[in-house]
Write a structure and sequence with these properties.
The chain is an all-alpha fold. Helix content is about 70%, strand content about 0%. The longest helix is centred in the middle third of the chain and has 36 residues.
């Protein structure tokens, strides 16, 4: 026996879907108008009575574009520039991820505690700080000195990459 279920939508969800469709239509409309205008004959494009359709589509506009001698070169130039920007952005993202990854793994206590608990000769700096935590009284001077020593390589690493990172981020924004 087949059971049919009737889905009842909540009014809030229906309203959200309606708003989403309206926003999607508003965002897509300029693209639709651009493609439509590309296929309209010149007389329809310059008409004082614009219509959201054409009864006589034409490829004349595309012929004019491809008849221009330099269009292919401009297209290739745009691909090269876009590829360069993508590579530069990827490098910047890689540097930013490297800084974050270095800092987070450098300071990672839980990983070291979980996997290196049996062999203290392979302990990392966050694990080494544990010797300054005593049941009766913590050695706060030792903890802060060890933390300072731990911070130095992170600062050196950041100083080495920050110029490239900041200049890359600044270069990603067009004037």
């Amino acid at each position: 026996m087949t059971v049919f279920r009737i889905r009842i939508r909540r009014p809030g969800r229906l309203a959200a879907e309606a708003v989403t469709l309206l926003v999607a239509a508003a965002v897509a409309f300029p693209l639709y108008w651009m493609v439509l205008s590309a296929f309209k004959p010149a007389g329809e494009i310059q008409s004082t009575d614009p219509r959201p359709w054409t009864l006589s589509p034409s490829l004349d506009s595309f012929r004019r574009v491809f008849d221009q001698q330099e269009f292919g070169r401009y297209f290739v130039n745009s691909l090269i520039v876009a590829g360069t920007v993508v590579l530069a952005s990827a490098l910047i993202a890689f540097l930013a991820a490297s800084v974050f990854s270095f800092i987070s793994t450098w300071n990672d206590f839980l990983f070291a505690k979980s996997f290196l608990i049996s062999d203290t000769s392979q302990s990392t700096l966050p694990m080494a700080l544990l010797v300054f935590f005593k049941p009766d009284e913590n050695d706060w001077g030792g903890i802060m000195a060890g933390s300072t020593v731990m911070t130095i390589p992170v600062l050196v690493f950041f100083v080495l990459v920050q110029r490239r990172l900041v200049s890359g981020l600044g270069g990603a924004v067009k004037d």
